[in-house]
Amino acid sequence: MKDKIEKLKAQLLAALKSAKTDEIVRNLEVDFMGRKGQFTDIMRGLKDLADEAKKTVGKLANQVKTEMELAIQKKYAELEVAELGEIADKEWIDVTVPGKKPLVGHRHLITKFMDDLEVIFSRMGFAVAAGPDIELEHYNFNQLNIPPDHPARDMQDTFWIKNLKETVLRTQTSPVQIRYMEAHEPPIRIISLGKTFRKDSDATHSPMFHQCEGLMVGENISMANLKAVLTHFMQQVFEDPSIKTRFRISYFPFVEPGLEVDCTCPICHGEGKTENVPCRLCKQTGWLEVGGAGMVHPKVLENVGYDTEKYTGFAFGMGLDRMIMIKYRINHLRMFFENDLRFIQQF
Ligand code: DAH
Fold it and tell me: Which ligand 1 atom minimizes the distance to the CA of 196?
C-alpha cells in the first residue's frame, strides 16, 4: 500500500511537470484527488487495514496527500505567473515615461465673449433672442424698412443664396428684432448675438463676423434709456466705470433718428494719449466708434403690428470682433480664425 501511495505521488508529479494548461492540471486534480479519484480510493481503503498499519500508512497517506495538493496548487500558480509573464512581455509599458496630458477643448474666445455679454445684459433685464444665419430677405431687409430698391442695400454687400429665392446670409442681427416683435407684445427687452455675413474680406474685415443687437420697446422708452443702457454696457465690457458714451447723428433705415455710438477710448481713457504717447487705437481722438443705434422707426413698429401711438423703442447693433480685439489687445483679426492653439489656449 505504501508503494502504491508513493507511486501515485510520482505519477502525479510527473504529469504535473509536463502539464501546460490550467485545464490539464484541473483534470489531474480530479483524477487523483477528486471524490472518485485514485488517491481518494486509497484513503478510503485505509479503514480496512489492521490497527498498526492503519497508523503508519495513514500517516504517510495524509502527508502525501498534503504534498500532492501543494504540488497542484504550485502548478496553478506557476501557470498563472507564466501567463502574466507572457502578457507582460507582449504588452509592457514603461511607467516611468512622462505622461501625455489629454488635450481638453474649450469654447472659443468669441463664444465666451458673447456669453459674457448675455450676462451683462441679462442683469439689465434683457432676454436673449435668436434668429437663423440663413435669413429671408423679408426679415433681413424688407421689414426693416429697406425695400429692394433702397440704396441702403448697397451699404451691405450681401451673400445671396443660390437657387433659394429671396434668401440671404444675414448681413446683420437686426432681423431678429422683427422675428421677436412678430412673436411678442411689448414691453420687450432683448439682445441677440451671433454671426453675420458680408462680401468683405481684407486685413480688418472677415466675410463672417459677429454682432450684438439690442431692442427695447414699451411705453415711454426714450433715447435717455438707450444712452443709459449703452453706457453701462460699455463700462461693464471694458471693466472701466469711467467710460462715457456719445451719440452722433447718422442714418439707418430702421431707426429715426439714427445714431453712431462712440465710447471713450478704453486704452487712453479718452485722453488721446498715454504718458504723452499718442494713442493709436483712437487716433488721438479719445473716442471709438462701437456701433449704430436709434429710436425704432415707426414704420418698423407698424410692420409688426405695434400701436405706434402707444409704444416707442430703441435699437442698437454693435460689431463684436473689434471690441474683443481691443479688450484683449489682439492685433490681427485673422488670429480669431486661424485655429492656432497657441493663441486659442490663452483665453
Ligand atoms: N444693423 C446695423 C449694421 O449692421 C447696425 C445697427 C444700427 C443696428 C442701428 C441697429 C440700429 O439696431 O438701431 O450696420
Answer: 4
